[in-house]
Every structure is written in structure tokens, then in C-alpha cells.
Design goal:
Length: 189
């Protein structure tokens, strides 16, 4: 009888502990870079940004060549210039140099702004697909496997590939994933 009461008591404790145990959380991860590189619009955006950057770079080179030509002309003729022309030329060259620096800064800001504008709809689309995949497959969390943090480093130190939902996200977006490239073997292995 004592044994039976002990078994019933242990059974009740086990049932209580099981009922109070937190439910297991399902965690997955999605590799944004991998997903983006698989999307056709990412290639189009990259091409647009490359074209835009090249145009700005060509404009900068042309302005730099003009500046260099004027500097060489000034250096060649400085000894024979009167003071008024010399000061005027130096002022003009100083202004040209400032304009070159401003153009370079504005060009970098312009490329960044264009990249942000082009990528925002893609981020939204991929974010929505990740959310849908998480809900449809019962995930509690989806994380990025590698996140740049100040000083560099990964947030996740280990991630099981079976939880990588990147291909599910691509499928949700209507993209057939390309096979991953095989990494070369490390030397000596």
C-alpha cells in the first residue's frame, strides 16, 4: 500500500511538472545575403547602382582632369604671371579643389541614398516572406546567422543547418534557389 501511494504521489508530481514546463521554442535562421543574391531584382539593383556609380565616377574623373590641367598650366606659367592674375588663378584653383571634394562627398551620399531607395522594397518583401514562413512553419524566432556588431562578430555561435529557412523564404518569393557553391578544402586537409 505504501508503494502504491508513493507511485501515485510521484505520478502526480511528474504530471504537475510536465504541465508547468515551458513549451519548446522553435528557432530558425535566414541568411539575408544568400536570399538577396538569389533574387532577380537584387541583380537588377546591383546593375543600376554600378551604372550610377560609374557615371558619377566618370564625371569626377573629368573634373579631376580639368583641375589637373589647370594646375599644370599654372605651375608652368606662374613665374611669368603678374600678381593679380596669379592670385586670381590660385583662388580659382582653390575653388575648383573645394568643388571636387564636395562633388565626391555628394556623389557618395547620392549612391547611398539611391541604394537605400532601391533596396527598401526588397527588404520589405523579404521581411514579409520571412514572417510568413515563420508563422506557417511554427517558428517562434528567426534570426540572422551572422550579424555585424560593433567590433565584428557573430551573434549566433552555432546554428544547425536544418533550421535554415532561407530556401523556404526563396520558395515563398517564387524563386528557385541555385545550388550553393562548394567551399574549397582547407590547406592540409
Amino acid at each position: 500500500m505504501r508503494t502504491l501511494l508513493l507511485l501515485i504521489f510521484c505520478g502526480c508530481i511528474t504530471l504537475t511538472a510536465t504541465a508547468q514546463a515551458p513549451a519548446a521554442q522553435k528557432i530558425g535562421y535566414a541568411d539575408w545575403e544568400y536570399i538577396f543574391q538569389q533574387l532577380p531584382e537584387f541583380k537588377q539593383i546591383t546593375d543600376q547602382l554600378t551604372t550610377h556609380s560609374t557615371q558619377l565616377e566618370n564625371q569626377y574623373k573629368a573634373k579631376t582632369q580639368e583641375f589637373d590641367t589647370k594646375v599644370k598650366a599654372y605651375q608652368a606659367n606662374a613665374a611669368t604671371m603678374n600678381d593679380v592674375v596669379k592670385r586670381s588663378t590660385e583662388t580659382e584653383l582653390g575653388q575648383m579643389q573645394e568643388n571636387l571634394q564636395k562633388f565626391q562627398q555628394d556623389a557618395m551620399a547620392n549612391v547611398q541614398s539611391k541604394q537605400t531607395a532601391l533596396m527598401e522594397p526588397v527588404f520589405t518583401k523579404v521581411g514579409k516572406a520571412i514572417e510568413d514562413v515563420a508563422k506557417e512553419n511554427g517558428y517562434d524566432f528567426i534570426m540572422a546567422p551572422q550579424i555585424a556588431v560593433q567590433g565584428g562578430g557573430d551573434i549566433l555561435l552555432y546554428s544547425n543547418e536544418k533550421y535554415d529557412v532561407s530556401n523556404l523564404v526563396l520558395k515563398k518569393l517564387g524563386v528557385t534557389p541555385k545550388p550553393a557553391a562548394v567551399a574549397p578544402a582547407a590547406p592540409g586537409k
